[in-house]
Amino acid sequence: MTDAHISVRDLTMAYGSRVIQRDLTFDINHGDIFVIMGGSGCGKSTLLKHLLGLIEPSQGDILYAGESFVHATPERRDSMRRGWGITYQSGGLFSAMSLAENIELPLQLYTDYSASDRADIIAYKLALVGLDGYQHFYPSEISGGMRKRAALARAIALEPDILFFDEPSAGLDPISSSLLDELIQQLQASIGATVVMVTHELPSIFSIATNSVYLDADSKTMIAYGDPKHLRDHSDQAIVRQFLTRTASHPAKEHT
Q1: Quick check: 185 and 193 in contact, CB under 8 A?
Q2: Which CATH architecture has domain 1-83+161-168+193-256?
Q3: What global pTM score does this model have?
Q4: What is the pLDDT of residue 90?
Q5: What is the pLDDT of residue 2?
Q6: Given this model, what pLDDT does residue 174 score?
Q7: DSSP string, 213-239
Q8: 22 Cβ neighbours under 8 A, 6+ residues apart
Q9: Which part of the chain is the ABC transporter domain (predicted)?
Q10: Where are the domains of the chain?
């Protein structure tokens, strides 16, 4: 009996005739903090874009709770997407909007809440990410770490059951990165969401990830799947062990 929240089946990703990855088959279970990892140029962000429906697969299928997203109608895709929260490397906040206005936008688009109810939700979401009282600040007026947290508050505005992150710690110092990891873990536990992350940061991978897939640029397919701690210690693929045991002074080989 599977507990798959997201199922990737025989997926091939390509730009024209150039294959990025082929034969990807794996499950992301309900409640996973799932990491997509691999050297640079292996297709991590491309896989994320496929999961989000921003790029159509050359072959294969992606299923959410057993339902095909690839073969769904545009209307059904939109409906499925409303259960997702997404944050981008830059945070993706609208610079001309205050934090409150950024968080209010999905509430205005997809709910019938009154202005008063929306204000309560905004205050609650900002408090959850440690930004209580920052409603009227603009993105340019707060730090990079605070912008990441504000983007997370917007991502959880509609109580999503899946959260997607593209390099959430990019550009953050180690302390801010660690605090963001803790916040993601706490939010996952409190709202019960499945988390899917693209990251190469080992502290993040080992502190919060429960499952992972490793994409290899040379063979153009996945060569490891499972708990990253187990893969670090027991993978039969040397490149995976090297990636997961690299240090700042001895970085793992990165594929371009």
Answers
A1: no
A2: 3-Layer(aba) Sandwich (3.40)
A3: 0.89
A4: 66
A5: 59
A6: 84
A7: EEEETTTTEEEEES-HHHHHHH-S-HH
A8: 11, 12, 13, 59, 220, 221
A9: 6-242
A10: 1-83+161-168+193-256, 85-159
